[in-house]
Amino acid sequence: MRSSLAPGIRLLRALPRDSWYRGLTLVLTFLFYASFHLSRKPISIVKSELHTNCSAQGRGAPNGTNSSTWCDWAPFDQDNYKELFGALDNAFLVAYAIGMFISGIFGERLPLRYYLSGGMVLSGLFTSLFGLAYFWKIHVLWYYVLIQIFNGLVQTTGWPSVVTCVGNWFGKGKRGLIMGIWNSHTSVGNILGSLIAGVWVSSAWGLSFIVPGIIIAIMGIVCLLFLVEYPEDVDCSPPQHHTESEEKDPEATFSTDDGSCIRENTLDSSECPKEPGEELEAISFLGALRIPGVVEFSLCLLFAKLVSYTFLYWLPLYIVNVAHFSAKEAGDMSTLFDVGGILGGILAGLVSDYTGSRATTCCVMLILAAPMLFLYNYVGQTGIATSVALLIICGALVNGPYALITTAVSADLGTHECLKGNAKALSTVTAIIDGTGSIGAALGPLLAGLISPTGWNNVFYMLITADILACLLLSRVVYKEMKGWCGCYTRKRGYVLLKSKVCPVFL
User: Fold this and answer.
1) Start-end of H helices in 290-383
2) CA-CA distance, 28 to 219, in Å (whole number)?
3) Nearest 5 degrees, angle CA 362-CA 363-CA 369?
4) If residue 253 lies in a helix (H) or strand (E), which one and from where to where?
5) Which one of 97, 153, 162, 292 counts the least CB within 10 Å of its CB?
């Protein structure tokens, strides 16, 4: 007698074919970008091992070596080691920022699957080459700087590619929540990178780079074999990038997420980029800049990412210096900031979907982040419980706006109504926003390296100032969103057609 079909299989068969592919795209792109961050994290963990307290090693210096620096790794055994670490960080981040502005243009004109997988394999190569310096006993600074530059350039293939793929598969419906959950790949990658690097940091730090390098290279091969760029490639239905009300009444005037208005499905001529040629040609760099909201969100991300990446690169060293933890303990403790980042990204996406106000959500979280950063610096090391709680809260408030802007906001602007359904702008818009943010990512660790010799308090004052500037740069968009709140009624889908407007609603 044959048994009935297993319940799990019945459930799988009940899922629509489109849902299968959308789920596969989310999972794959999640793993791909997590591997990018996994390969970036080891440098922050290994810093404290490249220059450490040699007298605390419990044994004397070998004959003929300097008694105070015998256990350090040249060229980072000098008194200017913080500046050298800053140079390594900036070699990667400046190359990443410059390359990002170019990467989006290539991403729109090349097959994303080949572009992304090639970048991942090359990133794995350069990450591993950094770690091989341990086994090859390389002690010249230019080698490490060149590896960081090349790695920064090839890693720019990642973000525009994965955001474009997700944008191709998902419409605007629950984009904030979906991308908030999906964007946790950044924090997951940081956490895994910290834990993997911590395994070998005190024994053979080269493996802290080689193992993540192998992982991202393997994921590049998976990308080549399984990634589907467009729903149409597998006969699935493309997502709808317009609201239900727009489809019912295309002649009405609507208020968009950033407060700009659309009449007959186009923006006012002063707001909408004009591109020569056919409708579905890739948009130019200047054309993407003219999309309403791109400049404001890009500049906001510059300062938000400055704060986030300063924590990414300097938090373990701060914990070692202030709380006097070991390198491995500091690396493990720093993962709590990324745990908060996961929660913050999901919360920001959920709230922005619920209210229809992306900019206001970012602004509120940035305002709350400033006093939390102040508290963490002054009372964060008074006890383990206090440190854990404040690290998670700071991670949520700092990374929440960063996550929302780089995902849902970028996808919204890259499929803006004035583009008339042309999703080819998505890669360029994403690259502009994240590229501008990467300038801040380069400045943050550099400023931290320059300011930290004067005291960690000054580093935190710099971070708080950047946080406030990020909030102020969104003020115009927030004002437009607040104007759109007036005279709106609730409706099941969160939008209502009223006085020729589609308004964000608090349900």
Assistant:
1) 294-323, 327-355, 358-379
2) 9
3) 90
4) strand 253-255
5) 153
Nearest residue to 417 (alpha-carbon basis) of 246, 190, 206: 246
Query: 119: helix, coil or strand?
Result: helix
Phi, psi at 262, each rounded to 5°: -120, 130
Question: pLDDT, tens digit, for every residue of 434-455?
Answer: 888 888 888 888 888 788 888 8
Enumerate the β-bridge partners of residue 262.
254, 267
In terms of Cβ atoms closer than 10 Å to its own Cβ (0-12, 13-18, 19+), residue 174 is middle
Alpha-carbon gap, residue 21 to 13, rounded angstroms = 13
Mean pLDDT score, 176-203: 85
- Reported residue count of the chain is 507
DSSP readout, 104-160?
A: HHHHHHS-HHHHHHHHHHHHHHHHHHHHHHHHHT---HHHHHHHHHHHHHHGGGHHH
Report all structural domains of the chain as residue ranges with CATH numbers, in order of start. 16-54+77-502 (1.20.1250.20)
266: β partners: 263
Distance (Å, rounded) from C-alpha 75 to C-alpha 78?
A: 7
Question: Which two three-digit tokens encode residue 249?
Answer: 């009444």
Nearest Cα to 70, choosing from 82, 62, 81, 80? 62
Q: pLDDT tens digits, residue range 6-60? A: 676 666 667 677 888 888 899 999 999 999 999 998 988 888 788 776 665 555 5
Distance, in Å, from the CA atom of 387 to the CA atom of 385, rounded to the nearest integer, reads 5
Dist CA 120 CA 31 (whole Å): 12
Task: Give the pLDDT score at 58.
Answer: 53
User: What predicted TM-score, i.e. pTM, was given to this entire model?
Assistant: 0.71
Give the bridge partners for 502, in sequence order. 497
Query: Encoding tokens for residue 164?
Result: 């474009």
What are the angstrom distances between the C-alpha of 153 and each of 30, 118, 484? 21, 12, 41
Token pair for 409: 């906001």
